[in-house]
TrEMBL record:
EC number: 2.8.1.7
Species, as recorded: Pseudidiomarina halophila
Keyword set includes Lipid metabolism: no
The family this protein is said to belong to: Belongs to the class-V pyridoxal-phosphate-dependent aminotransferase family. NifS/IscS subfamily.
A single GO molecular function term of this UniProt record: metal ion binding
Record-given protein name: cysteine desulfurase
Entry-linked Pfam families: Aminotran_5 (PF00266), Rhodanese (PF00581)
Span of domain Rhodanese: 616-703
Catalytic activity: (sulfur carrier)-H + L-cysteine = (sulfur carrier)-SH + L-alanine
Keywords, ordered alphabetically: Aminotransferase, Iron, Iron-sulfur, Metal-binding, Pyridoxal phosphate, Transferase
Cofactor: pyridoxal 5'-phosphate
Gene3D superfamilies: 1.10.260.50, Aspartate Aminotransferase, domain 1 (3.90.1150.10), Rhodanese-like domain (3.40.250.10), Ribonuclease Z/Hydroxyacylglutathione hydrolase-like (3.60.15.10), Type I PLP-dependent aspartate aminotransferase-like (Major domain) (3.40.640.10)
Record PANTHER family: CYSTEINE DESULFURASE, CYSTEINE DESULFURYLASE FAMILY MEMBER
Length: 703
């Protein structure tokens, strides 16, 4: 067995995503292990081993009641909060059906910022039971607090109302006492569910003294294992078991109890009730942690804005946005620095914006750039101190990559040179950069990337030669406005409908392989940028100019041009074709591929053990596909040669190395394996014939 290659040790990790899940405390892990090894009996068995198991079950329930202040009502152990939510919704809707009242057109009320488990459970059981009710989201204000007037106006027609104690994205805490007053004034018998997942361990609860009917909890949100939780059910509240068959949990939830998980809750409850314990920090300490982290974040990111008010929030959550920096860039560089945070909710990591912040009415940029940093009540001071230092390291890497502008005169030497492909979804924008000359041209700018391009120009002091498009645009378009902003860097003031400078030379000799007339050219460093056509033009980038060699077409920026005969008239055999839209993440194509005559190589599929062996060979080339700032924070220290080639620079890498690296062993690597998979497939299409990629990315290598 080949020893795995480790990128960074696990104990170097700074985990600040506790609202998603928490690590398991050692004493809780011990309780689980002890129960699995020694107290493995069935709590329903009457022999001594079963009785020992029963004691853990009954005592855990007793302690849990003390923790949540439930001397009355029921505490039912479940698989987690999602099951508790399902059970509560089913119980409420079944009670409505059994009452004989007409449920058609009634309301299922839920907070607009609720965890998605709630509205999805409401919709599911509403359909299954054919209740015919209408799901209606309760609006929130800019602080995330529920609209009490809306509740008062709609509650009398509701079959259930669901709110949450603490929001998982923002940490905003609802005033349950005020809510109860409104709810019971306007709907004294309406079942009320409160999602209490994020409040456990962060505040006092006295549920039996309230009229809350259902309160789901989850163990893994407070240092317990996954797969265990519990549900509080108020005395005499309507109840329908979600799982039936066996009668366990006093008939509330059948199935042999998860005793190791319940033993974990037993230990957790003991800690929460122990006045002398020092595992969970007091609120004053947690507030100090939050202030320390916020100071570090504001120093690192001067344009940071908080997305919630501290006066309404628990102290363990920070939700913020940095103007002009997408959340994905911050998350990736934090991850490279071994800081774990989330973009909004971990349950919606593929969503590019926060529905919670949208519901609060915050600006689009804040919703699209939101970062959630959350710690737990057992977090140590050393972790906070280390996090603050790493935050500055991550911000420094973002400044080096020109994603953050410094308020000092730092001079960062950019690694960008040649053609750079920027993307927003499937749409592509291209930068033609000459590093030595500090010159640049922009082709087909995208509105969402305009600020990033501005930062790059400002950071690197580029002289922008042109901002052009492959389609006509108006004076209010992104291209026109960007050209106006960057004109001080060298754009000509006189431009036509596609942004082409009118001073561009009309007598440039056409490059070889181009059989049509060109409309002049621009010099970008040591290359010529030609235009072909006027209404829907293409742009051709020549090879470097030399006194002896005739210029060829190295790159063609063809917009949405698809006519093969038109393309064939301007492309050479080796020309890299760059399109405006790239749904398949092709990065680039060539004329042979467009004609269907290409013969790509096959991706090399090898076992992880062999990949680790490759990583130890000096002749192997490891292509780190992460962005420059990620690579800077965590450079790969390997025996193999390492090159940092983000997807933004892959087309230039292909141009530079398709002849000398075609048969060299190559492993593509990124954080998770997604970007490296794209890079590996692209390289095989361009004749790199010994390419593999690490499917689990650095996450697998670091395991």
């Amino acid at each position: 067995m080949v020893t795995p290659v480790h990128i960074r040790p696990k104990d170097d990790e700074i985990y600040l995503d506790c609202n998603a899940t928490t690590p398991v405390l050692p004493q809780i892990a011990h309780a689980v292990s002890h129960t699995m090894e020694q107290v493995f009996g069935n709590p329903s068995s009457s022999h001594i081993t079963g009785l020992q198991a029963r004691y853990i079950l009954d005592n855990a329930r007793r302690l849990g009641r003390d923790v949540i202040g439930a001397d009355r009502g029921h505490l039912v152990f479940t698989s987690g909060a999602t099951e508790g939510i399902q059970t509560a919704v089913l119980s409420a809707l079944m009670a409505a059906r059994k009452s004989g009242a007409n449920t058609r057109g009634k309301y299922l009320l839920y907070g607009a910022t609720e965890h998605k488990a709630v509205p999805q459970a409401l919709a599911h059981w509403n359909e299954i039971l054919d209740t015919g009710a209408e799901l209606k989201a309760i609006p929130v204000d800019r602080n995330g607090l529920l609209d009490l007037d809306f509740i008062a106006a709609h509650l009398s027609e509701a079959l259930i109302i669901s709110t949450m104690a603490v929001n998982n994205e923002t940490g905003v805490r609802q005033d349950l006492a005020t809510l109860e007053k409104i709810i019971r004034q306007h709907g004294p018998k309406v079942p009320w569910m409160v999602d209490c997942v994020q409040v456990l361990g962060k505040g006092q609860l006295n549920l039996a003294q309230t009229s809350i009917d259902y309160a789901p909890f989850s163990g893994h949100k407070l240092y317990g294992p996954k797969g265990i939780g519990f549900l509080y059910v108020r005395e005499h509240a309507p109840f329908t078991p979600l799982i039936i068959g066996g009668g366990q949990e006093q008939g509330f939830r059948s199935g042999t109890e998860n005793l190791p998980g319940i033993a974990a809750m037993h230990t957790l409850f003991e800690l929460l009730l122990d006045q002398e314990q020092q595992v969970f920090k007091p609120v004053t300490t947690l507030v100090d942690y939050r202030e320390q982290l916020l100071d570090a974040l504001r120093t690192a990111f001067p344009s940071l804005e908080l997305n919630h008010a501290f006066e309404y929030s628990v102290p363990t959550t920070l939700n913020f946005s940095v103007r002009g920096v997408p959340s994905r860039d911050i998350m990736d560089v934090f991850d490279a620095a071994n800081i774990r945070v989330s973009s909004g909710s971990a349950c919606s990591s593929k969503v590019t914006r926060s529905f919670v912040l949208d519901a609060m009415g915050l600006d689009d940029w804040r919703s699209q750039s939101a970062i959630r940093l959350s710690f737990g009540p057992a977090t140590e001071q050393a972790t906070i101190d280390a996090a603050c230092q790493r935050i500055e390291e991550a911000a420094q890497a973002l400044r080096h990559s020109c994603l953050l502008l410094s308020d000092t005169n730092e001079d960062f030497d950019s690694e960008l040179d040649g053609v750079v492909q920027l993307r927003f979804d499937a749409q592509c924008c291209y930068l033609v950069i000459d590093r030595a000359a500090r010159e640049m041209a922009v082709i087909d700018p995208i509105p969402q990337l305009a600020e990033r391009i501005e930062k790059l120009v400002d950071c690197q002091h580029y002289r922008v030669k042109a901002v052009v498009t492959t389609e006509p645009h108006t004076s209010a378009s992104t291209a026109a406005m960007l050209a106006q902003l960057l004109c001080a860097s060298g754009c000509d003031a006189e431009r036509d409908a596609v942004g082409w400078p009118l001073h561009a030379q009309a007598d440039c000799s056409a490059p070889k392989d181009c059989d049509v007339a060109t409309d002049g050219c621009l010099l970008v460093g040591n290359r010529r940028l030609y235009r072909v056509g006027s209404r829907q033009p293409m742009y051709l980038l020549s090879s470097p100019i030399t006194p002896t060699a005739e210029a060829s077409v190295d790159f063609a920026f063809v917009g949405e041009q698809a006519a093969l005969d038109t393309l064939a008239a301007v492309l050479g055999k080796e020309t890299l074709v760059c399109r405006k839209w790239d749904d398949e993440f092709s990065i680039a194509t060539q004329l042979q591929e467009l004609k269907g005559q290409a013969q790509p190589c096959e991706l090399v599929n090898i076992a992880p053990e062999q990949q680790h062996e490759w990583l130890r060979r000096p002749e192997t080339l490891v292509i780190d596909v992460r962005e420059q700032q990620e690579h800077q924070v965590t450079p790969l220290q390997l025996p193999a040669q390492v090159m940092n080639v983000p997807l933004t620079r892959l087309v230039q890498f292909i141009y530079d190395h398709r002849s000398d690296f075609s048969n060299r062993p190559i492993i593509c690597l990124c954080r998770s394996g997604n970007r490296s998979a794209v890079a590996a497939q692209v390289l095989t299409r361009f004749g790199f014939c010994n390419v593999s990629h690490v499917s689990g990315g650095m996450a697998l290598l670091a395991s």
